[in-house]
Structure of Ribosomal RNA small subunit methyltransferase G:
Amino acid sequence: MTPAEFTSAMKGLGQNVSRETFSRLETYDALLRKWQAKINLVAKDSLQELWRRHFLDSAQLLPLLPPGNDPITDLGSGAGFPGLVLAMMTEREVHLVDSDQRKGAFLLECARQAGVLDRVKVHTTRIEAAQAWKAPIITARALAALDQLLAWAEPYLKPETVCLFLKGAKAEDELTLAGRSWNMATTRHGSLTDPSGVILKLSGIERRGQQ
């Protein structure tokens, strides 16, 4: 996918990519390729499809975000997907949580050069060790099975928290397992970038037995 095809795909989602936003993503592209030579940020073969496999995969969450300008907490951010992409494509404050110090340095530098450092907060700590805050929106991609993911997210949950999780072909099995321990309302959305993938939009999340 070319950058132009990315922009076209976003229009198909009802999302116009401004020139400023496009410039931010180009900066992200260049820095990721530069840093990839030193540290392993993404799978090497995925660089050839960076705009589809990482940028579009992240940006497809935009129309699923709750209205308003509530901040986003991205768990296990890695190279910044989906959290940093969402920071560049919205005006929301975004918290990026990842324990890898080198990836944290990359995220900070990328946010600085793209001009979004004022609203990006990087937390280089393990999720379970972080001083959790109440998060109205939580995102994660390819981080852990849903049951574990919800356990990590639990300290951040508010009654109105919405979670957007990018999952693969095992999503239904993960939902069945997680349903043994968690109550939640679930909406499924097909992935634009993975025919077997799904985006889970979860709300009303609470551990069973806590009603």
